[in-house]
Automatic annotation (TrEMBL):
Lineage, broadest ranks: Eukaryota, Fungi, Dikarya, Basidiomycota, Agaricomycotina
Pfam family membership, one: Ndc1_Nup
Domain of life (superkingdom): Eukaryota
Keywords recorded for this protein, A-Z: Membrane, Transmembrane, Transmembrane helix
Protein name: Uncharacterized protein
Ranges that cross the membrane: 12-36, 63-83, 108-129
Length: 293
């Protein structure tokens, strides 16, 4: 599944969006922290380089830790999104009338479940990332410095990481930094989740157009899977609604003679083609169609 997702452009766009938004949110936090949380000496706490006249290009370990945590969280969230198959169209059944969103505009249970899920996901991600960060500092970095020529390029920026205290003690000495990183990650993941959740809900647009039936048929014949899904979901409500106005709209659809072929013929043909394609996909067990000879 993951290898197939890597071949899609949507996966690349999603990763770029996660990385850009995560780093941007961290940059905003660091700017505000430098303004409202200065160090005892009055200097900014979170700068890219440490304040040292002897070694002006030493990277700030705290900023590097938070920056890489956002990058790791972006990759972890992308993996979660791929495993949840959120980039694929979900042909789910339209909610019943008793579960209609307009009757329950605020579902507290769903909001709480989402926040708890995001918190647990970010918590486990931060734990794994912190362990990986410590492993890189204590094992990988000394090995990289042993390579010829490589140390000459990275020594002006990272030499102080080798002379610091034990990695395990750094975890307890910088516990507030870990908590800060966790809450930044929760905020970032919550923004991603809230931005993507509305895309799972169908949107009714036909009633706002001059010819609702024509809009539905146009959506059903669309090559975009999401437009097709939304059109079929709206068509289900269009067919099941019990009112004189809905009955008149259905009659207009069935009796259409304005277009050639008429809308009912287009609807039947496209529905049969969709069923046939889905059945062939079922027979292939989800595998792509073979290349034409």
């Amino acid at each position: 599944m993951f290898s197939a997702a890597l071949t899609k452009k949507s996966t690349t766009y999603a990763l770029a969006t996660y990385l850009a938004s995560g780093v941007s949110l961290l940059a905003m936090h660091l700017v505000l922290a430098n303004i409202y949380e200065p160090s005892p000496s009055g200097n900014p706490r979170f700068t890219l380089f440490v304040k040292s006249r002897k070694h002006p290009y030493y990277l700030n370990g705290r900023v590097l830790y938070m920056l890489l945590s956002q990058v790791a969280l972006a990759f972890a969230y992308l993996l979660r999104t791929v495993l949840l198959d959120r980039f694929a169209v979900r042909w789910t059944q339209v909610p019943a009338e008793s579960d209609a969103p307009e009757k329950h505009p605020f579902r507290l249970a769903r909001v709480v479940t989402t926040l708890v899920t995001v918190g647990l996901f970010v918590g486990f991600s931060i734990i794994g990332y912190t362990a990986l960060f410590g492993l890189v500092r204590s094992v990988v970095l000394p090995f990289v410095y042993a390579l010829p020529y490589v140390s000459q390029f990275i020594r002006p920026f990272t030499a102080h990481f080798l002379r610091g205290p034990w990695t395990l003690t750094l975890l307890f000495r910088n516990w507030s930094l870990v908590w800060r990183t966790f809450f930044i990650g929760v905020t970032t993941a919550a923004c991603w989740e809230l931005a993507e959740s509305p895309l799972d809900e169908t949107v009714a647009v036909a009633q706002a157009t001059a010819d609702p039936a024509l809009t539905l048929v146009s959506g059903i014949t669309s090559t975009d899977g999401f437009f097709k899904q939304f059109a079929y979901a709206e068509l289900e409500r269009f067919a099941s609604e019990d009112s004189p106005a809905a009955s008149a709209r259905r009659t207009a659809l069935f009796a259409d003679q304005k277009y050639n072929p008429n809308m009912w013929a287009c609807l039947c043909r496209e529905s049969l083609l969709t069923l046939g394609k889905d059945y062939q996909l079922f027979l292939r067990r989800g595998e792509p169609a073979p290349a034409a000879a």
